[in-house]
Amino acid sequence: MPRHAQHNRQETLDKALSLFWRKGFKATSLKDLEDALDMRPGSIYASFGSKEKLFQEVLQRYGRQGLVELERILTANSSPLGGLADYLRQLGELRDTPRPSHACMLVKTLLELGPGGQSALAQEILDSMETRFIDAFKAAREVGELAPGQDPERLGHRFQAQVMGLRAYAERKIERAALHALADDMADDVERLARV
Amino acid sequence: MPRHAQHNRQETLDKALSLFWRKGFKATSLKDLEDALDMRPGSIYASFGSKEKLFQEVLQRYGRQGLVELERILTANSSPLGGLADYLRQLGELRDTPRPSHACMLVKTLLELGPGGQSALAQEILDSMETRFIDAFKAAREVGELAPGQDPERLGHRFQAQVMGLRAYAERKIERAALHALADDMADDVERLARV
DNA sequence: TTTTATCTTGAGTGATCGCTCAAATCCAGC
DNA sequence: GCTGGATTTGAGCGATCACTCAAGATAAAA
Predict the structure, then answer these.
(1) Which domain holds residue B156?
(2) What is the chain B residue with the closest CA to A158?
(3) Protein A35 CA to nucleic acid C7 C1', in Å?
(4) Which chain B residues in 69-128 lie under 8 Å from chain A, judged by CB atoms?
(5) What pLDDT is attached to residue B55?
(6) Count of the separate structural domains present in chain B
(7) Is B2 within the bounds of a domain?
(8) Would you say B95 and B174 are in contact if contact means Cβ atoms under 8 Å apart?
(9) In degrees, to the nearest 5, what angle opens at C-alpha A158 toward C-alphas A155 and A164?
(10) CA-to-CA distance for A87 and A85, rounded, in angstroms?
(11) B146 DSSP β-pair partners
């Protein structure tokens, strides 16, 4: 009996993701979304409830993709420190590919909406990322790759701050090569943690 | 014959700075400004021209204050690398004092308004900060504090990215002590560049 | 073909946006 | 006290905001 939905939910979320990532939450108007999603306001609200709920769903999607990508890189390298270094080097290639924004959407959201309320989900996802970084440093210690005096928690916080800085830096008008150099310097420092 | 202005321009700019720094450009409405500045729309527009021009003027003020503060810390330390390390350690105290936001207003602006157009001034000021960092590293090299193999430009980019990351990190719900530890770790690394 | 449950439409809601301007207000000089 | 020129006021402008809902469109079931 039912008429089937004309829009694929995942594709629609990807279009919204691109828009929100580029313009931020407040600067993205319903009009913008109508055009990008090729949906009229009624459909958007029937599907997602509100602009805010749509944004949360988009954030979830962005976060899940980011965590998957991180996991991919870490498991592709048998060395935990090497995996973390690879992750940084890959961020150095940010400017090689067109993207809605070079900065991290989670950080953009955190800075736009403040530490409370609406950006709570962004912070949760950032916490997940950081936890994964810390786990990698713990793995490095257990494998004997990391000097025993090093604290995985502190290294994880530090790594997270570096990633946030690198990606915010990438949002500036900067040359491709300079970003590569910056990311490589950071990656080299991570690998320098390995005891020789 | 003229009636003298009722508002002090610098004090007014400071109030606007607090608001814009906390809420960002788009989320700060004229109504917010009217309340915070205790001015009616006509006065605001007579004094500053537009919301955008007011924001630019506020950015200038923020940038100048930041550059002065950086200069103060660098010149207070006879060692260039020590001065840069001090700057980082002082950022570790961000959460000890109440502020409109713990994140850097220039980075918030860059991420909110994108790399083009309206945030051009924010990028210029970030460039000035970075140039000052690079000059400090150059000074360190000339004093013989820095190993000759090190490139002041790259170190400056790296330092800038670290500061951006640290301050974005500080915007998260994080404990005071954790931010101190993070800043100290970064500062120690800068001082470790000194040849022993 | 008709029915029916679901999805989509888009004109229109009240609220708020940045902003304007004629009138009111104010104070220094006469 | 009066007057002239600068400042301040605030009602209100058109545009846009997020959002609603009655009506229309669609396709599977009867």
Answers:
(1) 9-191
(2) B182
(3) 19
(4) 101, 103, 107-108, 110-112, 114-115, 123, 126
(5) 98
(6) 1
(7) no
(8) yes
(9) 140
(10) 5
(11) B194
User: Taking residues A113-130, what's their average pLDDT?
Assistant: 95
> What is the CB-side half-sphere exposure of residue B84 using CA atoms within 13 A?
34
- Examine residue B3 and state whether it is found in any structural domain, yes or no: no
CATH code at position A150: 1.10.357.10
Alpha-carbon gap, residue A150 to A141, rounded angstroms: 8
Residue B187 lies in a domain: yes
Model confidence pLDDT, tens digit, residues A133-160: 999 999 999 999 998 889 999 999 999 9
- Max distance between CA atoms of chain A, in angstroms, equals 69
Q: What is the pLDDT of residues A91-110, one digit of tens each?
A: 999 899 999 999 999 999 99
The CA–CA distances, whole Å, from B191 to A30, A56, B57, B83, B188 equal 50, 42, 36, 9, 5
| Residue B117, pLDDT score | 84
The answer to whether the CB of A157 falls within 8 A of the CB of B170 is no
**B43-59 mean pLDDT:** 97
- Indicate whether A153 belongs to any domain: yes
